[in-house]
Design a protein that fits this description.
Blueprint (H helix, E strand, L loop, with lengths): L2 H19 L12 E5 L5 H10 L2 E5 L3 H9 L3 E3 L15 E7 L9 H10 E12 L4 H8 L19 H8 L5 E9 L6 H10 L6 E8 L6 H8 L2 H8 L1
Parallel strand pairs: 1-2, 1-4, 2-3, 4-5
Antiparallel strand pairs: 5-7, 6-7
Helix pairs in contact: 1-2, 4-8
């Protein structure tokens, strides 16, 4: 990973921690706030996110070594195939869900989004982040006939999101109300320039961060959408 990309990811983490700390969470008394990090990796950022609001930390991670590292930091980690299996927590049991740099790796984004919505309490918070397919540097690369870095054939990403498309996905049938839509980083410019540029033009930023609140109701628009697909269509499209 290039130094510039590493700096952007560090800035994404800073923004997520900052935004979590600003959430208007109700006083819980003796009941702890619960934070779930979907794709928690080694738990280093999860720990900082949870500590920012004094939360009990849950995590999902499919890779064993980082999952164990996260558990060593006191995070309750489960191993779940996000594209195929439900989360092992009950409906409305989580206050805050963070899902950072995960959806771009998944073909079936409907299943995990439905589960994020399900486990969140009414009016609970989701902080979601993905690379921006329409970033400034990706637009330049496309204009020169090069493949965008956020979705390459020989790369780990299988989906690409522009700002409008990601917001459309999050807002799908009013399942979430977006309260903030931020841009982070402005590749290839250094961070002192990237912050104001991303603020002025979030749609051209390196990474998209959305802060959204679960709307009233228990039904999941994403789960309902997936359920309506026939078994053959799901197998063809997602496998």
């Amino acid at each position: 990973m290039s130094e510039l990309c590493s700096r952007v990811l560090a800035e994404v983490h800073r923004v997520l921690i900052e935004q979590v700390g600003r959430l208007p969470l109700p006083a819980r008394g003796s009941e702890p706030v619960v934070l779930l990090d979907v794709g928690c990796w080694d738990g280093a950022i999860t720990r900082r996110l949870a500590d920012a609001i004094g939360a009990r930390a849950l995590g999902i991670e499919v890779f064993e070594a980082p999952a164990r590292a996260a558990e060593a930091l006191g995070i309750e980690v489960v191993r779940v195939d996000l594209e195929a299996l439900p989360f092992p927590w009950s409906d409305g049991s989580v206050d805050v869900v963070v899902c950072n740099q995960v959806f771009e790796h998944l073909k079936n984004v409907w299943q995990p989004m439905a589960e994020i919505h399900r486990v969140l309490k009414p009016r609970g918070w989701a902080l979601l982040s993905v690379p921006n397919l329409a970033s400034f540097h990706n637009r330049v690369m496309l204009a020169l006939g090069w493949q965008p870095t956020s979705i390459r054939t020989f790369g780990p990403h299988v989906r690409g999101f522009t700002r409008r498309e990601f917001e459309r996905f999050v807002r799908f049938r009013d399942g979430f109300a977006i309260t903030k839509s931020l841009g982070v980083g402005f590749h290839p410019f250094p961070m002192p320039w990237s912050r104001p540029l991303a603020g002025l033009w979030p749609g051209g930023s390196h990474t998209l961060v959305v802060v959204a609140r679960k709307t009233a109701g228990t039904g999941s628009p994403w789960g309902e959408h997936l359920a309506r697909e026939t078994a053959q269509e799901v197998q063809t499209f997602y496998r």
